[in-house]
Structures are given as structure tokens and as C-alpha cells.
Design brief:
single chain; alpha+beta; globular
């Protein structure tokens, strides 16, 4: 794909800047600055359209000049996924915000893609409602949550944000506004854009299910030390049919004393398959936390039953633990997402520890087998590649996968971020149909799409 302007000091670049300014308004179009990059790839221009029609004009301008476009919300996950091949125009969706006027108590709400999720929740809270969305990224926009396929603890009961879609409006690569929804084929298309990092369309707004806010929320927590112990507790919890809203795990890699295992955990610790692993378990206590929601009396009764199942070490509290809805990784780390059947989650965590040679911080939805982990950013790229290969080998036999969400540039250059992906052919077909000229975030999707 030929570039219309290879730098921002050419006459052609100045003309494009002028047109972007006419479309978006003088304060909302500019040459990109040092902070305007996507997974380390610098942009040339930043455009912040105020209406869907203006965003469509930006896309049509890009098509005329053979420029690439990458959407950006709040930028909380701008480093997730593969780096695009080029970022000519960074299309900021921050002004495509707002909540549609729906009757109080309506079962759905239409929300602009650039609306911060916390603003949506604050608005709905005034009428006793909520979206069952709790993405961990602070300040994330709804469009960013959908485009990154992000979900928080509430996915245990309510599914991911993409599962809760009723409809979606987006702009295709030619600037045409498309309404997806209103039936199975439309919803299939809408959900295809989830997790696409803006490479299949520019999200304009989403219509999602709204529910009444629960009258009471209680967290029941219990300290845990080993993945095997977590396995046993989660199995017991799910068998008790206590209808948890979320089941979250925090296994840190800190220091501290480890208790002597008892009962089944002690027997399993002596099993031949555990040989050599005694020194690689977590030294400090982690935590298993269960969120219960509903009416006051019902929640109290279920919390009491759960505390009895968890034993004397359990605690019941009205607020979430400090680590709740937070990722275990920091900027600069190699951030991993592991997805595996819950019966094999402990095997996946042990495999990660064995490959890394030390405990690795793990946090996420133990009740679904979807957790995140962090490898230190200073770890050499070839070492990260070896760890990934070992973990993916274990997960492949268990129908699981490990995805690299974000990583330092040296790691990105040598590792496969995605691993095995069964739906690659379908994704390639969708890209060719929705963006045949590869103008939308080219290279962001698996397979270099």
C-alpha cells in the first residue's frame, strides 16, 4: 500500500491536515505527537470527529488518499494486540459519546462508543439500573472494551460485554454507517467486531441489555496457597449451586510462609506428578473471592452457606478486595491471558510456573478458567518465547490457549502473540469482506490481517 505522504512536512500532508480540520473542527485535528502511537507504532495525524457523519468523512478522506485508520478510545488498551503495519490517522472516538434517551426501566440502552464506562454506570445508577459490565481498565470507553474483547469479574454470571450486545452501529472502511443486530445474523456480525481492535470497523455506538442494580452485594473470601487448592475450592463452590455473580482468584508471587497442606491437598502434594514442584509454589497466601448479589435476605443466606463451605479461614465483607477488578501486570510487563477449562486451570498455572522457574502472579476468573498473568518486562525475549512454547504445549492438550495481550518491543518481534487460533480462516474472510483494501488497523489481527 503506497503512502500518500511519508512525513508530515510535505505539501500533501499539510493538505490532509487542512481537510481533517475542516471535518472535525480546528481544535480536533492535528499532527500526531510523541504519545500518539499504537503498540509502539507512531501515528501521523490525530482526528477527533464530533459526530458519526464526521467520522465517516475522515474514513472517506483516508480512502481517497490511501491512508490507514486506527480507532482509539481512552487509550487504556492501545498497546494490546499486534502493532499495526502503519498508523496514518488515529481516529479518536472521545466525542462520539453519550447515552440514548430511553424510558426509565427500559431493558436496553444505546451508548456512544466514546463514552467512559464509569459515566454510563453513574447515569444508570440514578435510576437503580446498571450494565453488567466491569472491565478492569480504569477510564475505559465502551467502544474500547468491545474492540479489545475485555471483560471483568461479572462475566461469570452475565457473560462478556459482547455477549450482552443487542445491536451495534459501526462505520465500514468506506465510511458507510452499518447497523448490525435485530436478529441472529446481525448479532453474529456485531460480535465479530468484538476483539477486532478496530480492524473490521469503527464502532459508533452499541445497544446493550440493562438490568436492575442488585439490592445487596457481598464478597466471601478465603486465603489460598496452591493452584490445586483453588481447584478443589472452586469445584466445591460450583457444586453447591450458590449462584455466584463472580469467582475471582489472586495468586501473587510475593514472600511469606506456606502452611502445611492437609487432607486431599496433602495427598495430592505427595503424588508422583507433583515431584519437584514443592519449591515452586507461591510463598505468600493468595485469595479466592466470591461475589454474591441479590436481595438482602437471599444474599445473607447464601453467604452463610458459602462461609461454612470455605471453613474458618473465610471472611465476609461488604466491599471488594483491593485486588478485585485489577490486572496482575504493569506497563512494560509481558501480559498474558490464559483460557482453559476450569478443571485444568491448576495444570495451566503449574505449567506456567514450571516454565518460568518461579511463581508468576496470576489473577482472574477462576470459575470460568480465564485468568491473566504477568512476566517481568526485563525477561529476555528468547526466554519469554520458551515459556510460551512450554505453556502452549500443555494447554493444547487441554483445549486451552495462551494469548499475549501486550509485551515490550523485543518480545513482540520474536513471539507469536496469538498461538493456535481455530477461527483464523473465518477472520480472514471477514477482513476481506469488510476491509478488502486493508485500510483499518492493518496487521492488528492474527495472521497479520
Amino acid at each position: 500500500m503506497a503512502a500518500a505522504a511519508s512525513s508530515t512536512d510535505r505539501p500533501g500532508a499539510l493538505d490532509i491536515t487542512r481537510r481533517l480540520t475542516e471535518i472535525c473542527g480546528p481544535p480536533f485535528a492535528r499532527f500526531a505527537g510523541p504519545a500518539d502511537e499504537v503498540a509502539g507504532r507512531p501515528a501521523r495525524w490525530v482526528a477527533v470527529p464530533g459526530r458519526p457523519a464526521a467520522a465517516a468523512e475522515v474514513l472517506r478522506l483516508a480512502a481517497r488518499h490511501d491512508l490507514t485508520v486506527v480507532p482509539r478510545g481512552a487509550g487504556t488498551k492501545i498497546d494490546w494486540g499486534a502493532a499495526p503495519d502503519r498508523v496514518d490517522i488515529l481516529l479518536d472516538t472521545g466525542r462520539l459519546a453519550g447515552i440514548g434517551h430511553e424510558p426509565v426501566g427500559a431493558s436496553t440502552a444505546e451508548v456512544g462508543a466514546g463514552t467512559p464506562l464509569r459515566a454510563v454506570q453513574a447515569t444508570l445508577e440514578r435510576t437503580g439500573q446498571r450494565l453488567a459490565l466491569d472491565a478492569p481498565s480504569p477510564g475505559a470507553t465502551l467502544g474500547g472494551v468491545l474492540a479489545a474483547g475485555e471483560a471483568g469479574p461479572l462475566r461469570h454470571r452475565h457473560g462478556t460485554p459482547c455477549d450482552q450486545l443487542v445491536g451495534l452501529r459501526y462505520l465500514d472502511a468506506d465510511g458507510e454507517l452499518v447497523h448490525a443486530g435485530g436478529g441472529a445474523p446481525g448479532l453474529e456480525l456485531a460480535r465479530l467486531l468484538c476483539g477486532s481492535h478496530g480492524a473490521l470497523g469503527v464502532l459508533v455506538s452499541a445497544t446493550l441489555r440493562v438490568q436492575a442494580a442488585p439490592a445487596r452485594r457481598v464478597w466471601v473470601t478465603r486465603p489460598v496457597w496452591t493452584p490445586l487448592e483453588v481447584h478443589d475450592l472452586v469445584r466445591t463452590l460450583l457444586a453447591a449451586r450458590l449462584d455466584p455473580a463472580a469467582v475471582e482468584l489472586d495468586l501473587p508471587a510475593g514472600a511469606g510462609s506456606r502452611p502445611v497442606p492437609r487432607g486431599r491437598a496433602a495427598a495430592m502434594a505427595r503424588h508422583p506428578s507433583m515431584t519437584g514442584r514443592a519449591s515452586t509454589g507461591p510463598a505468600a497466601a493468595g485469595s479466592l473471592a466470591v461475589l454474591l448479589e441479590g436481595g438482602p435476605a437471599d444474599v445473607a443466606e447464601r453467604a452463610e452457606r458459602l462461609a461454612a463451605l470455605f471453613g474458618d479461614e473465610s471472611a465476609t465483607q461488604q466491599g471488594a478486595p483491593g485486588w478485585w477488578r485489577r490486572y496482575p501486570f504493569a506497563p512494560g510487563d509481558t501480559a498474558l491471558r490464559i483460557e482453559v477449562p476450569i478443571t485444568d486451570l491448576h495444570a495451566a498455572v503449574y505449567a506456567l510456573r514450571d516454565a518460568a522457574g518461579a511463581p508468576v502472579p496470576v489473577r482472574g476468573s477462576a470459575g470460568l478458567g480465564v485468568v491473566h498473568a504477568a512476566l517481568p518486562g526485563a525477561l529476555p525475549a528468547d526466554r519469554v518465547a520458551a515459556i510460551l512454547a512450554a505453556v502452549r504445549g500443555v494447554l493444547l492438550a487441554r483445549k486451552g490457549r495462551c494469548v499475549v495481550l501486550a509485551a515490550p518491543a523485543p518480545v513482540r518481534r520474536v513471539v507469536d502473540l496469538w498461538g493456535e487460533l481455530a477461527g483464523l480462516a473465518r477472520l480472514r474472510e471477514a477482513k476481506e469482506h469488510l476491509d478488502p483494501h486493508h485500510r483499518l488497523a492493518p496487521g492488528r489481527l492474527p495472521g497479520g490481517l
